[in-house]
Amino acid sequence: QVQLVESGGGLVQAGGSLRLSCAYSGSDFSLYAMGWYRQAPGKERDMVAVITSGGSTNYGDSLEDRFTISRDNTKSTLYLQMNNLKPEDTAVYYCKVLIPGGSWGQGTQVTVSS
Questions:
Q1: Sign of the dihedral through C-alpha 41, 111, 96, 46
Q2: pLDDT in tens, 84-112
Q3: With contact defined as beta carbons under 8 Å apart, do 38 and 94 qualify?
Q4: Which one, of 16, 18, 19, 53, lies nearest residue 35 by Cα?
Q5: Which residues, in sequence order, are bridge partners of residue 11?
Q6: Which of 72, 108, 77 is nearest to 93 (CA)?
Q7: How many CB atoms lie within 10 A of CB 106?
Q8: Looking at the predicted structure, is the pLDDT value of residue 45 above 90?
Q9: Rounded CA gap, 78 and 7, in Å?
Q10: Residue 4 and residue 35: Cα distance in Å, rounded?
């Protein structure tokens, strides 16, 4: 049974940075594409960034200039570096294994104050 645990969220001022981590417990982390998603209050959950097993990346909504997704297969950990944060980035951030029925983490709250 795969478990995902996000960490690194918090309260930050606009223009600040945060680095989120997603610890994957289970086997075969390196074989799976992984993704970060976020959900703001009253809104749908949206894709932030995805990374394939080979390291190719894709970003949602013009986030590539501020966000960077990466992975460390030796640590079975997924990362999201977020720079120049804006109040509209406020949301709960989730990681996910990108397979049908893939596990979600419990989420980590990111709050950006203006």
A1: positive
A2: 999 999 999 999 999 988 888 999 999 99
A3: yes
A4: 53
A5: 111
A6: 108
A7: 11
A8: yes
A9: 11
A10: 12
* Mean pLDDT, residues 19-24 taken together: 98
Rounded Cα–Cα distance for residues 100 and 73 (Å): 21
CA torsion sign for 75, 50, 29, 26 is: positive
41: its two tokens: 């209050």
Over residues 48-73, the pLDDT tens digits come to 999 999 999 999 988 999 999 999 99
Which amino acid, one-letter code, is at 62? S
Q: Report the C-alpha gap between 65 and 72 in whole angstroms.
A: 21
| pLDDT category of residue 18 using cuts at 50, 70 and 90 | very high
Residue with structure tokens 């951030």?
93
Angle CA 2–18–77, to nearest 5: 25
Cα dist. 36→29, 40, 79 in Å?
A: 15, 14, 9
Residue linked to tokens 């999201």: 80
